[in-house]
Write a structure and sequence with these properties.
heterodimer; A: 333 residues; mainly alpha; 12 helices; 2% strand; elongated; B: 177 residues; 1% strand; flat
Chain lengths: 333, 177
């Protein structure tokens, strides 16, 4: 009796059978199937639904995943001899704070969607869900804009595009010289030198003089250590303070975007690696959340879907949680 | 015999019940129905919060975000001691995280299983970060000469700042500023 209670064929014998029916020993099993009503009884080990349990288990692995990333960032940052200030790498604190606000708002809207679904207001739940989707998209849009600002300043996490040098030393000087000596660059520079003064804007005219000086400095065999710092400051100055816009937008790379000269940001390469890794993984999580919301929007969000909305919400709050730590660590430290 | 049955199902979770009378089936159906309605009732009961509470948490989160942004503003009095700002921001972030977890993720109203999942994960997370310190955090204590030659130092930052100050002072050099 006890054994027959579990009518799932177990052991290798059951798997090998072509049709499975041979696995049943005796009429008893067949008789059960004949009744046609097989009742399943679930006895949860924990007082919560299975979906929610799985979501929380998943989130606990996510805690460790992001703790490893954030922990690595903190340890790398404080173990580094130099770490760039946020304004050295063109991070905008107000934009970061605004994005934090956007994510917090989206956390509220998803919570309100759940509450609406619980009281069976499907239309209202859908409105809140749609709003959450829009806020998440806004967050991603702002993030993309920020990435674009980094890329346009030559801050990339990988080598072929990255223009960041760690020190204004002789290696830096020779990298600038090598870039200026590229055949295409020689043509562009000649074109710039020959351009009549009235065809250039006032700023470009001044920048042309600065560029000529930089070319002289990197070509000079008797250059001093300080000269390379001057070259680096001309190519892409490090803003002294966020409030003070010393040289912001006036670097040679800003005035002539085609130059793409190597620039110096002490600690900038490690910064770029960690910044893009952390915010990138966070952005992937945001994208996954948006896909989930888009799928949920296809359903009628009444009380029977409250569990689904709750699980999606749990995930979304976790994404918000990660950003709560990322924002101060990245933008304000 | 019936006792045995219950025992197995409790141990194995979902079980296909076989060899039962119609009465048994009905009984189970009723039981599960009762359980479901009880569950729904319980849910209503701990339908906690209400929208007012969520909005209160939202306002607190906005206020705390403004607070951590405050460290960036000119009014922050501890500009020369970054450690004060770091400690302050981490305290603010932990408070925000706690608010989100407790109220938005409903952990405040959950049963004790919450500790089973969150405490080990949090401990693992902390150990993970601590384990990185010797190899990564202290990586610059002992470096080869080759590496020391190429890695940035605080002196480089000073050099660049001096160059910036010099070019700002000499208008002939960089009049654009």
């Amino acid at each position: 009796m006890n054994a027959s209670a579990i009518s799932i064929p177990h052991g290798s014998a059951g798997h090998d059978m072509p049709h499975g029916s041979g696995g049943h020993d005796g009429d008893h099993g067949h008789g059960d199937h004949g009744h046609g009503h097989v009742t399943l009884q679930y006895q949860p080990g924990l007082p919560l639904s299975r979906g929610k349990l799985i979501m929380w288990l998943f989130l606990s692995t996510e805690i460790m995943f992001f703790a490893a990333l954030l922990g690595s960032y903190v340890v790398l940052r404080f173990g580094a001899a130099v770490w760039p200030k946020p304004h050295h790498v063109h991070l905008s604190e107000p934009i970061g704070a605004f994005n934090t606000f956007v994510l917090i708002c989206s956390s509220v809207t998803i919570v309100l969607a759940l509450e609406a679904a619980r009281v069976n207001k499907a239309g209202l739940a859908k409105t809140w869900m749609l709003l959450t989707l829009l806020l998440g998209t806004l967050f991603l849009g702002i993030k993309a804009y920020e990435y674009q600002a980094k890329f346009s300043h030559g801050i990339y996490p990988w080598a072929p595009h990255g223009l960041i040098h760690e020190r204004p030393d002789l290696y830096y000087g020779s990298a600038v010289r090598a870039r200026l000596g590229e055949p295409a660059m020689i043509d562009r520079l000649k074109e710039l030198d020959d351009a009549p003064a009235d065809s250039l804007t006032a700023e470009a005219l001044v920048a042309r003089g600065r560029l000529q000086q930089v070319r002289k400095m990197v070509a000079n065999p008797d250059q001093q250590a300080f000269d390379m710092a001057v070259v680096a400051d001309q190519v892409m100055p490090l803003p002294a303070e966020a409030a003070d816009h010393h040289g912001a937008g006036h670097g040679l790379n800003d005035v002539f975007p085609w130059l793409r000269l190597p620039m110096v940001i002490p600690g900038g390469n490690m910064w770029a690696s960690t910044y893009f890794l952390l915010t990138g993984f966070h952005a992937i999580h945001v994208i996954v959340g948006l896909i989930v919301f888009a799928i949920l929007l296809g359903y009628r969000l009444n009380a029977s879907r409250a569990g689904m909305i709750e699980n999606a919400g749990l995930y979304w709050h976790f994404v918000d949680l990660v950003w709560i730590f990322l924002f101060p660590l990245m933008y304000l430290f | 015999m019936m006792h045995d049955h219950d025992h197995t199902s409790a141990a194995h979770g979902p079980v296909t019940r076989a060899g039962e009378t119609a009465d048994d089936t009905v009984r189970y159906a009723e039981a599960s129905h009762a359980e479901a309605s009880h569950g729904a009732h319980a849910h209503e009961h701990d339908s906690h919060g209400g929208i007012g509470k969520y909005l209160l948490v939202f306002l607190a989160l906005c206020f705390l975000t403004t607070m951590s942004f405050f460290t960036y503003s000119a009014a922050w009095p501890w500009k020369d001691q970054p450690q004060v700002g770091w400690a302050f921001m981490m305290a603010v972030s932990c408070t925000k995280a706690l608010l989100v977890v407790l109220f938005f993720m409903h952990v405040f109203w959950e049963a004790n299983w919450k500790y089973v999942l969150t405490i080990p994960a949090a401990m693992m997370a902390i150990f993970l970060a601590i384990m990185l310190i010797p190899d990564i955090g202290m990586r610059n204590r002992m470096v080869s000469q080759e590496r020391a030659l190429h890695m940035a130092r605080a002196a480089d930052l000073r050099l660049l700042e001096e160059a910036g100050a010099a070019s700002a002072e000499a208008p002939a050099h960089a009049p654009a500023h």
